[in-house]
Amino acid sequence: MLVFLHGCGGRPTVMPTLPAGIPLAEVCNRYHVTWQWDGVTQVVLMQYKGNTSKALVGSSTVLIGQQQIILSSPLRREHSTIYVPEDFEAKVLAPFGVPVTGLPFIAGSSRVHVVVIDAGHGGKDLGTMSSSGGMNEKEIVLDVAKRLRELLESAGVKVIMTRDTYVFISLPERTIIASRSPADLFVSIHVNANRDHVVSGFLVYYLDSVPRRDLNEEQKRENTHIFLRSLNAGVSPILQSIVSDMMATLKTSQSQRLAKAIVREAREQGGIKVRDDGIRLCHFFVVRNTLMPAVLVETGFLSNHQEHSKLISPLYRQKMAEVIARGVMDYANE
């Protein structure tokens, strides 16, 4: 029971015992988050990979940079132990990039062991720009890509990034990186835009069919050569044609399954607004010239005011990464 005294001579008011929650030390130790508590000011300071968060014992408000997070209940202290509510991990640690979603570990029999994550644009190519300023597409998608990498690696998936800095990588180079790897999937991450600022919603694109002209595209032929060399196989025109046909047939059906899995997670678990049915056919360069199943995820419309506000939020970008990661795991373990 907790007893609160009003003034020096006030009569004690007996309050019902509140649930203790989770010890902060236990949570931080689990995820290697550095933390300290000032017993005078009651301020809790947490740091993880250069990110800083501040909380006050007795308050349910937490500051992550300039962002304010409201927990389901206040931080509490009993004796020398500080307790946090059940939603502390998801609301506070997740924006730091801490993998707290509890993804199932990849099964040995799974079809997915290596994933190429392609953060769109980069370097001189800023991508979509917001009319109100702030983060641009190349920054947003790189942050989502890094969060996705942490989530997938925590589930036992090997991740290859086409870029993990703000450097510019050309479209052909991105497909070559994928072709030189033993990747099972290719996931490209982008942010959308539209002249009509009302347009919004999450979308996943995939290549439904591969026409003969695409199979003969110069970059596709080069990537198939690279793949065959990695197998120590010859690169005769006949063999290349057979391999291209086989991989194209597999790619179209599996890309659709992956796209549906990611959209399903966004709608049913992520609570993210999906545009129409959430799936679109495309002819994007990186999607048609990769050899493995590939999708391109448009995380939202930066041209839409509401989605712009969400996309610049670390908490929302973490949610995006979780949705994609869970979609990949759903596909992998089907």
In short:
The protein is α/β, with parallel strands linked by helices. The protein has helices at residues 24-30, 88-93, 137-154, 171-179, 212-215, 218-230, 237-269, 285-288, 305-311, 314-332, and strands at residues 2-4, 13-15, 22-23, 34-37, 43-48, 51-56, 61-64, 67-70, 76-78, 81-84, 114-119, 158-161, 185-192, 202-206, 274-281, 294-301.
Characterization of the model:
- With 334 residues, this protein is an alpha/beta fold.
- It has 2 domains: 2-95, Copper amine oxidase-like, N-terminal domain (Copper Amine Oxidase, Chain A, domain 1, 2-Layer Sandwich), CATH 3.30.457.10; 101-332, Aminopeptidase (3-Layer(aba) Sandwich), CATH 3.40.630.
- The chain contains 10 helices and 16 strands.
- The protein has helices at residues 24-30, 88-93, 137-154, 171-179, 212-215, 218-230, 237-269, 285-288, 305-311, 314-332; strands spanning 2-4, 13-15, 22-23, 34-37, 43-48, 51-56, 61-64, 67-70, 76-78, 81-84, 114-119, 158-161, 185-192, 202-206, 274-281, 294-301.
- Strands 12-11-13-16-14-15 form a 6-stranded mixed sheet, sandwiched between helices. Strands 4-5-6-7-8 form a 5-stranded antiparallel sheet, covered by helices on one side. Strands 3-10-9 form a 3-stranded antiparallel sheet.
- α3 packs across α10 (314-332).
- It is elongated, with a radius of gyration of 24 Å.
- The model is unreliable at 1-19 (pLDDT under 50).
Salient structural properties:
334 residues; Copper Amine Oxidase, Chain A, domain 1; Aminopeptidase; 2 domains; six-stranded mixed β-sheet; 10 helices
